[in-house]
Every structure is written in C-alpha cells, then in structure tokens.
Design goal:
PQQ_b-propeller_rpt; signal; quinoprotein glucose dehydrogenase activity
Length: 731
C-alpha cells in the first residue's frame, strides 16, 4: 500500500510540473543557455543611454478600439456627492461586489448550506457565456470571472468582455451587451474578473442608468450600462464609454489591458491596467486614473515619474513610460477617501539599473491614493528593488482589528507572492504593533554590473508565512533515482542562496518562491465573525537566467510591439526580450524537462486557516488531487490529495464552509472550516480558476463558480458558469 501511494505521489509530481511548465514556456521546451563564457558576457556592448519612444509616435490602428474622442477634464468640485452604494452594507442574500462588500472579504452571512447537508448539493443550472477560442485561434482563454448578484439578478462578463444579466434562480439570460472586443486585443490572457454595480446620485430612481454596470475591457475602454436594460448610458463619456488609451502614447493592441472591476470611491471610478511584463524598458505607462462615475469625465492621474502633475498630458505628450503598473483588483475606502493600489515593478522586470528613484520607491508596494487628488497618502513596500516579478496580484481586504482596550483599528490584510502577509493600519500604512515587520538581511550587492540589490527586505514576523523552508539539495524529487540525480545536478549548477537570490548572467539562478508562489490574484477570504483567514497558495520555484542582448537576439526574444514578434518570442510570463536594456530574460519552471516533473517535491499547492487573533495556523492541507493530472499530461484518475498549483480564491460562509476550486484537478470543493476536511466536491466542465461566490434567492442559497479553464494552468477551457443549490426537500 505504501509503495502504491509513493508511486501515485510521484506521478502527481510529474503531472503538476507539466501543467506549470507548459503554461509558462513558449514551445514547451527548455531554452536556458547554461554557463556563459567571459567572451559572451562582454559581447554586444550596449549604450546605456536609452531614449523612450517619441511622444509623437502614433498609436497603432485598433489601440483606440472605438475611435473615441479625447475625454474632457473636470475639477473634483464638479463630482457630485455619492449616495450609499449596495456594496457598503449589502443585504445578506446579495453579493454586489467582487469580494461581496466594500471590505472585499469574500465572506457571506448565508448559512443554509452546512457541513451536515452540503453532500446533497446539486447543480441548479449552467449558464454559457459563449466565449471560447474559435477554430484556428490560439488558446489565450482564462475567464477568471466572479459574478455579482443584486436583487434577483446576476451580472457577469465573458472572457472577451461581453456583459450579461442573468436570472439568479434559473440562469435565464435577461440581456447581453456585446462589447466588440477583438482577438487581437487579447494580451497574455482573455480574462474579465468581474463588473461593478453603481447607483447614480444624479439620475432619479426609475430612470435609465440610475443603477448601472461599470465595466472595463481588454482593449482599454471604460463602459457604463443601464443595469435594468443593458443599454449604454448616453450621459457617460461618448455614448456610454471612454477611451483609456488617451495619454498612454505609442503602443499596439494587447500591450495594455484591463481585467479587473474598477472600484468607485466617493463618486470617483478608479482605473488601473496591466502592461505586459518583460517586453521593453520603455513600455506604456502604469498610470492610475480617476474619473467621475456619473459622466466619465477625467478628474486626476497618478503618474509615478510626474507625481505633482495630476492632469492629462497635453496633446503630443504622454504619461511617463515604463513605470510600475497595477493589474490586481483595487479596494476602495469611502470613509478614509482612499483607494488601495497594489503595484508591480517597473518595466523590464528582472533588471532595475535604469529605474528612477521615484519608481523604486513605489514598486511592488501597496499605495494609498487620495481619491480627491490622486496623490499618494502613504506607501508600504513589500519588496525593495524587485527583480523577481513579485508584483502584488492580490486584492487587499479591509477589517477592523480589535485592540486590547476594546477599541478597533481600521486595518487591512495584504497578501503577497512571497507568502509574506502584512497587516497594516489602513489610515497610515504602518504595520499594526501586533504584526511587526522587520528588515532582514538579503543577498547583496548582487552580481550584475551597476545593478545592486537592496541589503535588506521586509519580513512579517507575526503572521504565519505561506510557504516552506528554503530549498535544499535533499529536497530534489524525481520519478526515478536518475531523475532525482538530474535535479540534484541542476540544483548544483544554479546560483541559490535562499529567497532573494539575485539575478545571474553567467549561470541560472533559482527563484523561490516563484513569481506564481504564495498568494496571487485569488486573494484571501476573511471571516469577520471569527477572525479566521483562509488562504490558498502555491509552492512552485522557477529557474531563471539573464542573457546578454546578443544571446537574446539569437533566442528570438522580441517585444510584443516589434514587427517581427511572434507568440514564441516570449510574453507576459516566461521568456522576455526586455528590449532597451542590456539583457533579456529566460524563465522556466525548476523542472526536469525530459520527464516533465518539478524538481522540488510536492505539495505544490496548499490551503490553510489562520486565526488572526492568536496568529496561529488552525489547519493546513494540500489543495488539489491527481485525478486530472499525470505523466506527460495524461490524467491518472487518482484521488490522492497531494496538492496542485492553483489560481483563484475561496469564499467563506456563516454555515461553516469554505468553497474553493482553483486547483488543476478541475473540481470545486466544500471544506469544513473547523477541520479543513473536504466534505463535498464536484467535477467541473472546465478548470475552476476563478473566485466562487454565494447568494440567496427566494430563501434558497446558491453557490456559483466560473469553470472557464485557464491556458496558463493548462486546464480545459469552457464557457460554463456552474451554479449549485440544495434540493427543495433538504433544509
């Protein structure tokens, strides 16, 4: 029996590596160049003085997707006072925001479904969004969608940004708006995480667009639709939409995109956007902007390298290029008048020598912007001079921390890819005294000329880390002793001195946690009644190496706006051209490319419950089984719960349950919050890489998950929104 379990574990390790590696490496091959000679190291010297593209460089056709006019600018005094929104204090039956409430805690007070009866949960209906790759199209699909629910309706979006209203009890489509997003506008991923519900303080109740759906698109438009009919709100922008490429400057379709629901704070809808990683130093700007939610008119901008200029650029000018972008879901704070913006690092992710001091001060940070001015009120940095792609993918969660004297501190939970979780005072950005942060020594000064590393990095010392100890050679794994030996040799050939091993040029280095480690865009769930945090996370190291420009050219690494770019030239993940710098980057999983097996032993994905009051882990379990995984991508059908890579988060309920999909076994599961045991599961028609949600209609509780699959995770693509409920005779 023990021998069978070991074999199954080994097979699972192989399958997981295949899933991770295939998703991250163009052509599914290992192209690390290996040791570099001193001659190659000095080959192709590059002038260090690079000029950004000319401000007058035209945007490529299709970048302004709807050919919209320039948006006018107004003063903050012209923005009307916002009426209370349904997401501020939602009805128990509703889920009106991406994370349910303005706190974004992914907690529902519904309790009809419990550990005692969840085993009888059945599919109530399946709704099809209609968005899948057409014949001949490359699979870039990963819907990642969480519907919202207000009243008797679900509002959701397809992977290509069509917006739909659905009857929440039957799944019948009430209306659909075709957004017209084209395949060429898909960046790395066709995804729409959700939409925003907004109630106007100007349009009277009962009139069109009193209640509206605000949505962003992959081709950089911001739209407002009447929630009742789905028709565009004529009073918003130009016929219901505005062009968010205004002021961005030279670009091409797919270089810049939006995938998250924009929050509305005190009448200002705040927009961020993703910029494809690894392309060029002078990539389009990561500017953050605020617009009047009533009219769509521009109010302010936060441009990192022009921090005192909050206006739109003059004609022929653009926002500063290459600055840190923010692609994660933002969280608003109406009481403090802030929006919490998770940032990434500057363009050319693995090389920092060309970044400005202003960029270094706010990269891989949480930045609290004043929603009246766009000026930062505070900044908390999670990685100094990030060259590991440790951008913050998680949405922060607001909560009130109970102090010993009976008072409460307005606080927030900030997860990271490092597995470090920071608990901050949301008014000041300082760590709560109960959750101190230490600056610990880190490997420095680095080995790349003129690109020194920070001598210290921040560590959250009280909140349990989501991760395992540093890798050791004895941790190497394989399907046979020969495979294990191969990985041990690979380990020895690489530079590795623990977390924050600096980038290397003459040999590979191991990045652990990897850029998909710790917590990513699925974020965390928090039960405000019990003070318990639910976190699922990844354990997937990477094997990276910088290459000089001559080698990058030989490998065919080109930026997405290069006329010679092809999909095999690199993308948002994996290999990158990093044009306009001296180096390109080659990134692969730390795996045995011949067997398709990760070199570190499983588990590769975990879920755990943490009591925020005691700072203790209540339970910790592997997340994901081997049923849909196997050697060389072949499913084993084995139900062993050893832990697979996962993307997507969870929801917690007053019924004592956690609902989560996320893993590469294509299942949704219900977990008993007290014990961590799986008490129900169902196989989905596609990968469940999305955050689930729950709601109630006519006294019946439902659970919904978008089973859209995910090309990055190598899970089956589908267009199915799957909704569950208990049979009528079960109470």
């Amino acid at each position: 029996m023990r021998r069978i379990s070991l074999l199954a574990a080994t097979i699972l390790g192989s399958s997981l590596a295949v899933a991770v590696a295939h998703a991250q490496m163009a052509g599914h091959e290992d192209r690390l160049p290996g040791p570099v000679s001193s001659e190659a190291y000095h080959a192709d010297p590059l002038n260090p003085k690079f000029e950004p593209p000319s401000p007058s460089s035209p945007q490529a056709p299709g970048v302004n997707a709807a050919n919209l006019p320039d948006d006018p600018e107004i003063d903050i005094s012209e923005v009307p006072q916002m009426v209370p929104q349904v997401s501020t204090n939602p009805a128990p039956a509703d889920w009106p925001a991406y994370g349910r409430t303005d706190d974004q805690n992914r907690y529902s007070p519904l309790s009809q479904i419990t550990p005692a009866n969840v085993g009888k949960l059945k599919r109530a209906f399946v709704y099809h969004t209609g968005s899948k790759p057409a014949p001949g199209q490359a699979n870039k699909w990963a819907a990642e969608t969480t519907p919202i629910k207000v009243g008797d309706s679900l509002y959701t979006c397809s992977a290509l940004n069509d917006i739909m209203r659905i009857d929440a009890a039957t799944g019948k489509e009430i209306w659909r708006h075709n957004s017209g997003v084209k395949f060429d506008s898909i960046p790395y991923t066709a995804a729409c995480k959700g939409v925003t519900y907004f109630t106007s303080s100007v349009v009277p109740e009962g009139q069109p667009c009193h209640n509206r759906i605000i949505a962003s698109t992959l081709d950089m438009r911001l739209m407002a639709l009447d929630a009742e009919t789905g028709k565009m709100c004529e009073g918003f922008g130009f016929g219901g939409q505005i062009n968010l490429m205004q002021g961005i400057g030279e670009s091409v379709p797919g270089f810049v995109s939006m995938t998250t629901p924009p929050p509305v704070i005190n009448g200002i809808v705040v927009v961020n956007h993703e910029v494809l990683d690894g392309q060029r130093r002078w990539a389009p700007s990561g500017v953050i902007r605020g617009y009047d939610a009533e009219t769509g008119k521009f109010v302010w901008a936060w441009d990192v390298n022009n921090p005192d200029d909050h206006h739109q650029p003059a004609p022929g000018k653009h926002y500063s290029r290459g600055t840190p972008n923010s692609w994660a879901a933002m969280t608003g704070d109406n009481e403090l008048g802030l929006v919490y913006v998770p940032t990434g690092n500057s363009a050319a992710d693995y090389y920092s020598a060309m970044r400005s001091d202003k960029e270094n001060a706010v990269s891989s940070s949480l930045v609290a912007l004043d929603v009246r001015t766009g000026a930062p009120r505070w900044v908390f940095q999670t990685v100094h001079k990030d060259v590991w792609d440790y951008d913050i993918g998680s949405q922060v969660t607001k909560f009130d921390y109970p102090n010993a004297d009976g008072t409460k501190t307005p606080a927030l939970i900030l997860p990271t890819k490092r597995g470090q979780t920071f608990i901050l005072d949301r008014a000041t950005g300082k760590p709560l005294p109960e959750f101190p942060v230490e600056e610990r020594p880190a490997p420095s000064p680095g080995v790349i000329p003129d690109d020194s590393r920070s001598p210290t990095q921040p560590w959250s010392v009280a909140f349990p880390r989501l991760g395992f100890p540093d890798l050791k050679e004895s941790d190497m794994w394989g399907m046979s002793p020969i495979d294990q030996l191969f990985c041990r040799i690979k380990y020895r050939k690489a530079a590795y001195v623990g977390e924050f091993t600096p980038p290397h040029l003459k040999k590979p280095w191991i990045e652990y946690p990897g850029y998909n480690g710790g917590s990513d865009w699925g974020s965390m769930a928090y039960d405000p009644k019990s003070g318990i945090v639910i976190a699922n996370w990844n354990n997937t190291p990477m094997y990276d190496q910088l290459v000089n420009r001559a080698k990058a050219n030989k490998l065919g690494l080109m930026s997405v706006d290069d006329p010679n770019f092809t999909p095999s030239s690199g993308g948002a993940e994996g290999n990158g051209a990093m044009s306009e710098t001296p180096y390109g980057i080659v990134v692969t999983p730390f795996w045995n490319q011949y067997t398709g097996m990760m070199c570190n032993k499983p588990p590769y994905g975990m879920i755990e419950a943490i009591d925020i009051k005691t700072k203790k882990v209540l339970w910790q379990k592997p997340l994901g089984t081997a049923r849909a995984n196997g050697p060389w991508g072949l499913p084993t059908g084995l139900p062993l719960n050893i832990g697979t890579p996962n993307n997507g988060g969870s929801v917690v309920t007053a019924g004592g349950l956690i609902f989560v999909a996320a893993a590469t076994d294509n299942q949704i599961r219900a977990i008993d919050m007290k014990t961590g045991e799986v008490v129900w599961s169902d196989v989905l028609p596609g990968g469940g890489q999305a955050n689930p949600m729950t709601y109630e209609v006519n006294g019946k509780q439902y659970v919904a998950i978008m089973a859209g699959g995910h090309h990055f995770m190598m899970t089956p693509v589908s267009d199915a929104l799957v909704v569950y409920a208990l049979p009528d005779d079960v109470h």
